[in-house]
Amino acid sequence: MESRFDLFATETGAKIAKRFAGLGMALHQSPLPKITAELVNLRASQMNGCGFCIDMHVKEAVAAGEDPLRLHLVAGWRETTVFTEAEQAALAFAEEGTRLTHEGVTDETWANLRKHYDDEQVASLVCLLGLINAANRMAVITHQKGGSYQTGMLAQFES
């Protein structure tokens, strides 16, 4: 399946990409650990079937020093021993916040998240999850393919 459309080649798409990049930069500057952010981005992207975003967040995580073994295990994180309790709380939140139901994130998952993250980090996680889910949907709708992402290539939209 070919890519349907180069969203970033349009004036509107480029403007939106710049805003997304600005939001991403604000989240990158938040007190949320970068690796936690990449794990959350990766898990949501896996659930949404976004090859482009999976490719991007694996490569960005490796560039940030993440162990590739842990990245291979993200989809089955509940059945591993390689994630901290805080990371597990964030991954559970990512799954429930991506697969929204009428109740959204359960009280149990929310309480567990709050045990591990302060207000600033929780705000970052909520915004991060909303942003990655929006990005996943745009990329899947336009059939953006994974495999060609180069670390930092979206920095052009940050200025």
Could you write a compact summary of the structure shown?
By secondary structure, this protein is mainly alpha-helical. The protein has helices at 11-28, 34-48, 51-63, 68-72, 85-98, 107-116, 119-141.
Structural features, described:
The structure is a single chain. This protein is mostly helical. The protein has a single domain, classed as AhpD-like. Helix content is 62%, strand content 0%. It has helices at 11-28, 34-48, 51-63, 68-72, 85-98, 107-116, 119-141. α2 packs antiparallel against α3. It is globular.
Query: CATH class, please?
Result: Mainly Alpha
Structural class: mainly alpha
Count of extended strands: 0
Terminus-to-terminus distance: 32 Å
Give the mean pLDDT. Answer: 93
Uncertain regions spanning at least 5 consecutive residues: none
Q: Supply the number of structural domains.
A: 1
Query: What is the 3D shape?
Result: globular
Describe the sheet with the most strands: none
Order of helices and strands: HHHHHHH
CATH topology value: AhpD-like
Write the CATH homologous superfamily: AhpD-like
Estimate the helix proportion, in percent: 55-70%
CATH architecture label name:
Up-down Bundle
Strand content: under 5%
Q: Figure out the total of helices.
A: 7
Radius of gyration (Å): 15 Å
GO molecular function, one term: peroxiredoxin activity
Pfam family, one: CMD
Protein name: AhpD family alkylhydroperoxidase
InterPro entries: AhpD-like (IPR029032), AhpD_core (IPR004675), CMD-like (IPR003779)
